[in-house]
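Molybdopterin synthase catalytic subunit (Paracidobacterium acidisoli), 249 aa
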Amino acid sequence: MQVRILLFGVLKDLLPDQPDSICLEAGSTVDDLLQTMQARFAQYFTQTGPAAQGNLWSSIAVAVNREYAPATHRLNEGDEVALLPPVSGGTENPHVALIREPIDTTAVVAALKQGEDGAIVTFDGIVRNNTRRRRTLWLVYEAYEEMALPRMQRLAAEARAKYPIRDVAIVHRLGHLEIGETSVFIAVASAHRAAAFDACRWLIDTLKKTVPIWKKEHFEDGAVWSDGEPFPAELTPQVHPKPSPEPLR
């Protein structure tokens, strides 16, 4: 059977020759697919060592048809399978968006605020001019948009269920960003400040770990995909190498 393969972030650079689809035996699982990918690209890691290969395959998450899937998930003909490096539900919320133009933070807050709110807590993620003492020139953000936006919507719904807040806004920028521009903006409206602070911190921390958005940093001496925060353990199907067959005697 044929399944479609999507690569994002650093995986596109590490596995540049990966075709758009891969052929697997009927009844194959996510683990089988990862085993096949690992074997196919083993030659790449002869230059970087086995540790690099282990780190790659143990850190990715897998989405099948835009939903995270465990290693045991059985694949079907025509499935869309996305391999996601660490990054860096409910009713749709009109304040949740992925955009490519500059984020108007003042307009986001104004659209969210209502008379019953006693507090608006915001997080404004800004492009800084350095990373680990290297001068940053600009950033590029990309996303698995068909999955990222629903995940952001789900986070907004989960925050409203988890904390005594009224509403939230989550806006993430994609594409080319200059130093000083806002990359992600989160606002939480609540009657009381404590719940708004707690929800805002939870939203940005969870977004960074679970929403498939990646950052490429461009420096004076090159460009790299930023190391993302690890996915939660339950989202990363681990590859368990299969024993090699014993040689014929």
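The chain has two domains: 2-86, 96-225. Confidence is low (pLDDT under 50) at residues 46-52. ok done for today
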